[in-house]
Task: inverse folding
């Protein structure tokens, strides 16, 4: 697939509660990131995980669907 000059590709959601706006039956229960793990030993990764832009690169969300 070729994309023209200046083309951007974006996907995903900006934050965990964004999906709740899609339908009144979607309820966010919790979210977590790899960087939230108490088992994370690397000081560098713990520091890196404090940056919101990095922390939210990939995270897990848990919803109730009614």
Result:
């Amino acid at each position: 697939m070729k994309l023209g000059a200046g083309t951007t590709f974006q996907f995903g959601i900006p934050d965990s509660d964004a999906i709740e706006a899609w339908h009144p039956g979607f309820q966010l229960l919790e979210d977590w990131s790899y960087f939230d793990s108490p088992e994370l030993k690397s000081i560098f990764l713990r520091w890196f995980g404090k940056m919101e832009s990095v922390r939210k690169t990939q995270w897990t969300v848990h919803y109730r669907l009614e």
